[in-house]
Structure prediction request, 654 residues.
Amino acid sequence: MKRIVSAIEVARLANVSQSTVSRVFTPGASVSEKTRQRVLEVAEQLNYQPNALARSLITKRTNMIGLAMKDIQNPFYHEVLGIFTNKLKAKGYSVLFVYTENEEIQQEEINHFLEYNVEGIIITDAMLSSNIVTKLKNNHIPVTLFNRYDKNLECNSVSCDNINAANEIAKYVDHLYCEKIVFITGKINTSTSQERQEGFVNYFKNKGIPVEILEGDYTYERAFFLTKELIEKDYVPDVIFGANDITALGALDALKSKEIKVPEQTMVIGFDDIKMSSWPNYNLSTWVQPIEEMVDETIRLLERNQRETGHKTVKVQGKFIHRQTTK
Amino acid sequence: MKRIVSAIEVARLANVSQSTVSRVFTPGASVSEKTRQRVLEVAEQLNYQPNALARSLITKRTNMIGLAMKDIQNPFYHEVLGIFTNKLKAKGYSVLFVYTENEEIQQEEINHFLEYNVEGIIITDAMLSSNIVTKLKNNHIPVTLFNRYDKNLECNSVSCDNINAANEIAKYVDHLYCEKIVFITGKINTSTSQERQEGFVNYFKNKGIPVEILEGDYTYERAFFLTKELIEKDYVPDVIFGANDITALGALDALKSKEIKVPEQTMVIGFDDIKMSSWPNYNLSTWVQPIEEMVDETIRLLERNQRETGHKTVKVQGKFIHRQTTK
Prediction:
């Protein structure tokens, strides 16, 4: 068992008050350079560590943010995790991290965050019940949905304007005179998949052009299977729009395995712009989600809730990037 | 600011002692079912949350493990992170997560872990100075390197037996009568790249067969570039062994872009068995790192250090998996 050196011992040996020791270890607190040096030397000598947890009981601030994530196989969320961790670190927050294995965040996982007194919770790609949102509200812990939107939940939400983005993609496809148009959905109970479908399909519905909708699940494997099946039924689409990049990559590889020429015979479009989409072998045309902007907005909303209550919905735009899978 | 309900208030209203309330919220503690129910009801009513941080000051246990990771682009580490988080959760630990942007873990990042009184630290793919290891030792915080080994550091280490694995791969290549043999390294200052090179190259050195060594950096892009350059110099290897899967996939795509037939003209072998390697478009032959076993060993070593001092080095074996990029 380690012996914990207290601030009192450091204060005594450095011949300063305990509050001076405390100020030396509080970012931004005022203390003379000479005193600071002396305290740091004594702290080093005694192997003293300021205790963030003990401090949190006094300041009521833990500087911890809980982050819950589900889709371990989607590279989009790895990029998201990296950006969140770095941006939160730059603001002095630590990340308490939970991978959830369930579609819906479990009470037990939220309890875990509550026990550690996190100052805010970010949920990326899992569902949240309104029960849990109410419980968090009672505990005054702000929660922000990232890349998800649920009109029934009274919490912050940051996502891409998926309806508009998918509408723009539809316009682009339309000007290339496509007739056989396929949309592969993501997990159908997610707002991202629903909104992208709505924006894309409604555009063509208004023009009386049918869209073939295939039920995917945001995985490469499922999209590969669905596309292979299409080609084996002798249906070669003019364009396939996948609800995310990993779906589009699965479709693209299935087309290649059936020796369908991309983009000459079939065009493929994704959504996200994960790093892999720009690999030379893929060169996928896709919608760029502005992840940095989305992460900044998420942190801004969490911090806003430290000063005021209420919740906000933020939609960011992004842009289409044309690579080699579209004409 | 939220009002924090104390265990005393719960005890009073439930008409039990404070220690009974504490037992109800301590996993495994003895308390009658009837009392447990009454306490839980009152806790719910008062919106009481047991405070892990306050408890940690008494028990000296935070149940937090610090996890530091660097390579955000390598899918191998995303799989590793998912498995660590789930296995640690099952044992009652939380994960305090840090992405490090530097080759070597910085003192500041370690301080962060120390401030939160983590019970152990796992470092995946970053370097650690012996200074920091000494400081952690003085603080009695066990540290385990995952997928790294450094004979100069006095800390636990869990990795694949890379030398033996690469030696087995060399044997396999040798029985296929290859002459033009290429090894693309990872980051050359990592133990994984050094050991895989040693095991592979030494096998052929003993037989008087030269191996062309290209300096990669564990990225897809670098391997793609190096392989493309080789082919453009009219050097078509019989086999390319990449120091990890993402390297092998870069090489594979470069070969395809130059219309080199795999495995007929050039075979490709990776190391890791990331999920992407079994995608139908890749079907990469590779060495399977037994991630689950490696994670279990890492946690076991951290927990061992709660009872005894000293450090251990564990090497696990893994196995070769033959897919479609080798004959």
